Amino acid sequence: MSPETGPGFRFTLDPKSGVPFYKQLILQVEMAIADGRLAQGDQLPTVRSLAVALSINPNTVARAYGQLEVRGIVTTQQGTGTFVSDRKIQHSEVERERVLAELTRNVVVQAGAYGIGVPELLRSLQELER
Questions:
Q1: Sorting pLDDT into bands at 50, 70 and 90, what band is 120?
Q2: What pTM does this model have?
Q3: Domain count along the chain
């Protein structure tokens, strides 16, 4: 489940994480703004198109977008779309490391369930990077 919004940014959802989908969407937008993958004025997918692409309820996307708008992170222009606002977001290195550790742990656990070890994962990651 990972539709693209533009160069360098894709929404993805992890149904096994225990984190509600709307919160995953919020965190992904915040992180993408903080690290420059999304910039001021970039348009997010419509509620309907993102919901269809991720196979989730449109109300879930609307909830995420609504909370992002309340926080001033995005602005919605009726009939035009949802856009990244001019609000700066910076996540601390600690937060970034926490997210990375959580992602890594999940991948290692899931791979282990299929008998795939860390060395194989590292090789695969290195191939993806090329």
A1: very high
A2: 0.69
A3: 2
